[in-house]
Write a structure and sequence with these properties.
Elements: H1 2-5, H2 9-23, H3 27-39, H4 51-63, H5 70-76, H6 82-95, H7 101-106, H8 115-126, H9 135-164, H10 170-181, H11 185-198, H12 203-220, E1 234-236, E2 239-244, E3 262-264, E4 281-285, H13 287-293, E5 302-305, H14 322-326, E6 335-338, E7 359-363, E8 383-388, E9 391-398, E10 401-408, H15 417-420, E11 433-438, H16 444-457, E12 463-468
Parallel strand pairs: 2-3, 3-4, 4-5, 5-6, 6-7, 7-8, 10-11, 11-12
Antiparallel strand pairs: 1-2, 8-9, 9-10
Length: 472
């Protein structure tokens, strides 16, 4: 308690872990977690350019045996080579003082081939004993809980305000100031992401933002980490904004979901919509889930329907979907995600929903030109987006034809042909403008090949551009 009273959090954590090592009392778990979560954001993440550098950083840091370092040691595990992971786990199992914090930190760690070792580490470190505390010990624990709760109220309240009003900027900026003042890197991330909304970021800022996300993203999303696909995570204004969920993952209500704007599912049949107040784009929706979410009006602007395996397409026999035909369940819907052929969805244009839609998003499964670009779509449809893996072709209509193409290349490639392939979706000699958006700067030779291929297919092209957006 003296260490807490003097704001020496690290010394207080050492005392708490030593107490756990002696008695394994369950009430100490929450105390250790609370205090450690206050210290860990102030610790600089471990790094290293090579695998040897990273393991050396792990080894030398672990040798100091400071409990405050545990989170960054655990965060380094997925970045080690397969062999080095084994040695690192041995260090944490045999040479590290037992701490209940190990269970919480390992929740978000994925190490293929080491699942049993991770379970052993959690069990060995964090299993409590079923022994009652003395009256004096209970009083000490209660006082420690009071001290930790009092000092943590400000941050918890500010974070709760962000989650309560995810659309607002002010709560995030206030939280950024508070976090920065405590050395929490979350504050720096919020500041960097707000700054690039107003002006293109400099290279140093791009690298710093990527580093912050690489080192801390799994920690900020730890309660939901096992339910999401890490490669799909996108942060905006310092918080989770877009993500794809793992197949069969249980989506339990958590505050971390409240800032999500775009969510892609994996054939889930239920979704706690109350956990997603900011949600505007929902993809891969099964018929069962559609019936659930259509039971009350939703503020979705995009709804993507899940492909139904085994259902024949191209036969003009796609059944009418009552939840969409009505239109009242989705008054803000302007974009619809479908699959198959245009004639499969012809019934849509006879419904109320057709008067709302301005964009169609198609999951591509065709060789060559997309039939959606040659279909007789209503004039209200001004844009067709064709998704193929992580990449996306956006075609904007001018009259009866689609004359402007924007290709979003989220998968970096050294070969221009990987991006030229998206041109095959578009009918020949129809484009007037073409723009490719790449995640990283490409070599001039690659850009030249890309332009040559585009102009060969569309000789009347008036404008060609290649832009870089590192956060596309």
């Amino acid at each position: 308690m003296a260490a807490l009273a003097s704001d020496d959090d690290e010394r207080a954590l050492e005392h708490l872990v030593a107490a756990w090592d002696l008695c394994r009392a369950e009430p100490l778990i929450a105390l250790v977690d609370t205090l450690a979560s206050r210290i860990e954001p102030r610790q600089k993440a471990l790094g290293g350019k090579t695998s040897d550098d990273r393991y050396e950083a792990f080894r030398t840091t672990a040798a100091r045996a400071r409990q405050a370092d545990l989170a960054r040691l655990v965060a380094m595990l997925p970045r080690l080579t397969y062999g080095d992971v084994s040695a690192a786990l041995d260090t944490l199992l045999y040479n590290w003082r037992y701490t209940p914090r190990m269970r919480t930190l390992l929740q978000s760690v994925r190490l293929p081939g080491y699942t049993d070792r991770l379970d052993e580490l959690r069990t060995t470190h964090a299993t409590p004993r079923d022994e009652p505390l003395s009256e004096r010990a209970r009083q000490t624990v209660a006082e420690l809980q009071r001290l930790l709760t009092t000092t943590d109220d400000a941050g918890a309240d500010l974070l709760a305000q962000v989650y309560a009003d995810p659309a607002a900027d002010a709560p995030r900026l206030v939280y950024a100031d508070w976090a920065t003042s405590r050395g929490d890197p979350r504050g720096e991330l919020i500041t960097l992401q707000f700054a690039r909304r107003d002006r293109p970021p400099e290279l140093a800022a791009v690298r710093r933002e990527r580093a912050l996300l690489e080192y801390y993203m799994h920690r900020w999303l730890a309660p939901i980490w096992n339910a999401i696909r890490p490669y799909s995570v996108r942060f905006e204004r310092g918080f989770l904004a877009a993500v794809t969920v793992e197949p069969f993952a249980v989506i339990a209500p958590r505050p971390e979901w409240s800032t999500v704007i775009a969510l892609e599912l994996a054939y889930h049949e239920a979704l706690p919509m109350e956990a997603f107040p900011a949600l505007r784009e929902l993809r891969n929706v099964t018929p069962k889930l559609l019936a659930q979410i259509a039971a009350a009006p939703r503020k979705l602007t995009h709804l993507g329907l899940a492909t139904e395996p085994g259902l024949r397409t191209g036969t003009r026999s796609m059944p009418v979907i009552p939840e969409l035909a009505d239109g009242r369940a989705f008054p803000d819907l302007v974009s619809l995600g479908v699959w198959g052929y245009p004639e499969d969805w012809a019934w849509i244009w006879q419904t109320q929903l057709a008067r709302q839609l301005a964009r169609i998003e198609v999951t591509h499964s065709f060789a060559g030109e997309s039939p959606w670009l040659a279909a007789s779509l209503p004039e209200s449809i001004r844009e067709v987006r064709i998704r193929e893996r992580a990449n996306e072709a956006r075609l904007v209509r001018a009259g009866a034809t689609f004359q402007r193409l924007e290709v979003i290349c989220r998968e970096p490639s050294r070969d221009a042909l990987a991006w030229v392939h998206m041109l095959e979706l578009v009918p020949l000699r129809t484009l007037r403008e073409a723009r490719f958006v790449l995640p990283r700067k490409a070599k001039q030779d690659t850009i030249d090949r890309l332009e040559q291929a585009t102009r060969r297919s569309h000789p009347q092209l008036e404008r060609f551009a290649v832009d870089v957006d590192p956060f596309v």
